[in-house]
Design a protein that fits this description.
The protein is mostly beta strands. It has no helices and 11 strands. 0% of the residues lie in helices and 50% in strands. The strands form 2 sheets. Strands 2, 4, 5, 6, 9, 10 and 11 form a 7-stranded mixed beta sheet that branches. It has a 4-stranded antiparallel beta sheet with strand order 1-3-8-7, with no helix packed on it.
Length: 123
């Protein structure tokens, strides 16, 4: 069983930056693909970014490519999402998730989820 706890969300202005963190505990010896998803009010949960267990492969949604960077520190069991040049349309609850396998951009591939952290970007 893996527990995931996100932090780092907040209220910022368009153009600002935020760094989200996701601390993992329990079952961290397993090799999970880690991902970030987000969900805005009235919208479906959407893929943002994912990273392989080794950190050697990273994937991004087209909407965040070039602005967001995913990274992880296996020694600290922590996943990060650096978000630059934030836009109002990035406003959502951001969730981190762990997957034992499957399609990285499909939310049903993920087995464990955090509780989410709110990111609000004002114009």
């Amino acid at each position: 069983q893996v527990q995931l706890v996100e932090s780092g969300g907040g209220l910022v202005q368009a153009g600002d930056s935020l760094r989200l963190s996701c601390a993992a505990s329990g079952g961290t010896r397993s090799r999970y693909t880690m991902g970030w998803f987000r969900q805005a009010p009235g919208k479906v949960r959407e893929f943002v970014s994912a990273i392989s267990w080794s950190g050697g492969r990273a994937y991004y949604a087209d909407s965040v490519k070039g602005r967001f960077t995913i990274s992880k520190d296996n020694a600290k069991n922590t996943l990060y999402l650096q978000m630059n040049s934030l836009k109002p349309e990035d406003t959502a609850i951001y969730y981190c998730a762990a997957s034992q396998g499957g399609t990285y951009h499909y939310y049903k591939s993920y087995d464990y989820w955090g509780q989410g952290t709110q990111v609000t970007v004002s114009s």
